[in-house]
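Data deposition worksheet. Section B asks for the primary sequence of the deposited chain exactly as it was used as input, without tags or linkers unless they were present during the calculation. Section C holds the resulting structure in C-alpha cell form. Section D is free text for depositor observations; keep each observation to a single sentence. Incomplete worksheets are returned to the depositor.
Section A, Depositor: J.P.
Section B:
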Amino acid sequence: MLCRPLHPLSAAFPLINMLRSYVRPRPSLPLIFTATALGLFALAPARAQIALPPKPDANATEAAAAKNAEAVKLSVFTVSEQQDLGYESMQTTSGMRTVQDLKNVANSISIINAQFIEDIGATNLDEMSKWFVTGEANPDPALPNKGIFRGIVNNYAVRNGWIWYSPMESYATERVEILRGPNAFLYGEADLGGANNQITKRGLFTRNLNRVKLMIGSNELHRAELDLNRRLNDKVAVRIAAVQQKNESWVHHVRREFRGIYGAVTYRPFRRTTISLMAEHAKSTGVNAQGLFIDGYSFNTVTTLTNTAGYVYVPASGTFFRANTMRRSAGSNLTAIDPTIVPKDLQVTGPNGTAKNYYDSVTLDAEHHIGENLHLMLSGNFYQQKLDTWGAAAARTIYRDLSPTLPGGAINPNFNQLYTEYFRTRNINGNIVRDVRLSAVYDLKLSWMQQQFVFNAQQHQDNPGAMRPKWGEYVDPSNPNFVGSINTAGTQAAFTANRATFTNNRFIRRYYLRDGDGGSITGDLGPIPGVSAWFPDFSNLVPAGGNQISRRFYTPSLGAGASGSYFNNRLFTLVGLRQDAFKMKTTVGAPRPIANTWVNDNIPGAFAPNPSFVNYKLSGSNYGVVYRLNDMFAVSYNRAQSFRISLGEGSNLYTVGSRQSIPTGEGSDMSARFTLLGGRLEANLTRYDNYQPNARISPAPVVAIRDEVAAIFPTTFNPTGTDYQKLTTSGYELELIANLTRTWRLSLNASTNELVTEDRLPLLKSFQSEARALNRATPLLDTFLLNFPEGVPNAGYTKTRFNVFTRYEFPRGALKGVYIGGGANWRDRTFRGNGTPVQGSPVQALWSPSYTLISVLAGYRTKILNRPTTFALNVDNVQDTDYYVSATLNTGSWGAPRSFRFSTSIDF
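Section C:
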C-alpha cells in the first residue's frame, strides 16, 4: 500500500501563502509603471533629508568580505555569481551536482548567464532558446516548454536539478545550463538529446541590490520587474524578485498575462552550515496560437460525411445541421503555408479560449561541512501546478465545402468556401511533485591527485492530476438532434457504448474563412441552452481504458560517482553509476454520463487489472576524461546513457506475449577545448554520436497485410502489435565565448545534425524471414516493408544552425556609457518527414526552408539622481523576414514579424 510520507518542506508552506498574497488582481500595468517611476524619482530630494549612516570602517569591510569569500569558497554545491565574466561562466553544477570548472568537465554543457539574458532582452526560456547551440523551443504551440535537442524532442525541463513542467521566466533566473546528450547518471529520467536546467536566484552576501526594470514593446507589451537583495547580517541574506507582464500578439486573439513573486533566503547559522530556502508563486493566463493549419482542400478527392461528423453549428449565420451526406474536399494533410489561402494571423478558438498555469514551488537546501573534506546536503522540493485549458479538438484542418445544398434541401450559401471546425473542450489538470535528496561528497587529496567522491540517494514523487474533470461540448440529449441513447448503467460495457454515442454527438463549431475570426463569432465558449451541453469528454480526453481516479508514482534512486584530477591538473576523470526504480499505482474508473457533473466511479471488475501496479528498475552510467595539454588546449571524451523509465513498458509487440521495452539511449561526445588570448577566448568543438536502440514505432499495416501474416503464424503473431527501430543522431557543435576587451563581449555557436532511423521493424522482418524459411509467400508484407527503408531521416532535426551575438560599450569620450550590439540566427532547412504535397505525385522528403534573423541592441548606462540607470532597445527580426518553422508534417508556426522592446533598469 502506498502511503503519503511527511515531506521535509512541510514547515515551509506558510511562505507560499505569503507569496500568494502578493499575486492578486492588480492595477493596470501603465499605472504601475507611472507609480514606480514617480516613486523612484521622489526619493531623490528626500534622500538629502535622511541622515546617512557613517562610512563603514575599511578594515571591518575587508574582514567581512574575506569572511564571505571563505564561505562562498567552502560551498561545493552552489556556483557563485562572481564566477561569471561577461557572457562566460566559469563553473557548473551539472556535471556531478557539485561545483566544477566548466572547462574541466567531461560532459557537454553550455551556459547562458544573466548578462547574456539581459542583453538579448529575453523574458522567458523560449526566447532564450533561439540562441542555444541546441535545445530550441518546439515550434508546435501545443507543446510548450519542450525543446528539441540534437533533433529529438525533450519532454520536460529541469529547475535547480528537479523536474519542471511550468513556464520558465527570466525574472527568477540566474542562469540556464544546457545539458547536451544523454545524462541519466545526473538526473535519472532523461531524453537522449539532453535537457535545460534553470538555476534560480539566491540570497547574496556579496552585495545589496535594489533594482526595478520597466519594459514596453511591440504588441502592447508591458512588463515590470523588481529585484531586491538584502544582506541583513553575516548570517542572513534575502532575495525578492517580482514580475508583472501583459502582452498581446500579432496573431489574432493571442495574449498573455503573467504575475509572479519569487523569494530566496540564505541562512548561515554556523560557519560550516548554509540553509537556502527558495519559493515562488506565479500565475500565467494566456490565449495560445493554433499554429499552422492543415491542408484538407488541395486534392480533387471528395469525401462524403457520415453521422460521425456530429452536429454542426455555424456561428456567423446561426445555422445548425447534421453533416451526414454532405461533401467536403480532401488534401495532403500537410501544413498549409500559403498565406493567400490561410491567413498567417488566423486563430478561431477565440479570445476566451484561455490556458491557465498557476504554480507554487518551495525548495530547501541544507548544506553542512564536516572538516575540510566531507560535505553533506539535504534537499527537499515541493512543486504544484494547476492547469485549466479551454481547448479545441479535431481542429486546424482547412476543408472546402462541396455541398451545393444543406441537408434539408436549402441552397448552401457557403458552397465552395473554405472552412475549419472543432468541438470545444476544457481540461482541468496539474501535478503535485515532492522530491527529496541526500548528497554526500568526500574530497580525497593526495600529493599527485585529488578525488571527489559523490553519493546521492533521491526520491521523486509525482501525483499527476489526470483524474480531474475533462469536459467536452456535446449535443444536449433533450434536443431532437441528439442521436442514440445514453447508457447510465455502471458497467464497462456501458462506458464503451457511451463513448460511441458521444462521438456521434460532438457539437461541431464551423468557421468559414471568408467570415473571419472576430471575437463576435469565436468568443462564445458555450454551451448554447437547449442545443449543447458540457459532458465528460467521452470521445476525446477520457481514455478508452478508463479515466484515472488516482495515480501516484515514485522514482527512488541511488547514485555514486567520482571526479578526479591528476598530475597537477593535467588529467580529469569522471565515473558515475546510478540506479532508478519506477513504482506506480493507478486506479481508473468511468465518469458518469451526466451534464455538468464529474463523478468518476470505480467499477468493480472493470478495466482489469485495476488497480494496476508498475515496478521497473534501470541503471545509467557515465564516464569521461579531460586531458589538458597546457593552459590553452585540452581534449575530452564522455560516454553516457539515458532512459525514460516513467514511460514504462509500451504497447504489445507483434510477437505474442511481449511488449515494448523502456526507451533507452546512449552515446559519446568528443571535444577539443581551447583557452586563448590569456583566457579572454574560450572555444569548444564537440563531435557527438548518440543513439536509441529501441525507439518505438507503430507502422500500422492494413488489415489485409495483418491477415496474410496471421494465417501463417496464428499463435505467435499479434495483428495489433507494434515494433522497434534504431534512432541515431550525430553531428558537430561549436561554441565560442570571448571577452575581447573589458567592454567587448561575444557569443558564437554553430551545430550540424543528422538524424536517421536504422534496424527498422525487426519483428515484422523476422516474420518475413520465417515465412520464407517455410516456403510461404508474403507479397503484401514484402511490399509494405519497402516503405520503411534503412537510413532515412527522422523528422525534427535542423541540418545546420548558427547563432552569434556581440556587445560593445564605449569606455570613454563623448559616447561613454553608450553600448551597441546585435546578432544573427541562421537556420538551415529542417526535415519534416515524407509526404505527398501534390496529388498523384510520389512520396518525397519535405523540409521547412532555411532563414536568417537579425537582431540589434542599443543602450546607454548612466546615472540619474546618482542612481545607476540603463536604457536598452532590442529589435528582433530587423529585416522583417517572412518565415515559418515546422518539425513535423502537420505542425509548426509562422515566425514573428519585426518587433522591438525598450527597457529601463534603475538601481535605487
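Section D:
The longest strand covers residues 418-445.
Residues 1-66, 68-73 have pLDDT under 50 and may be disordered.
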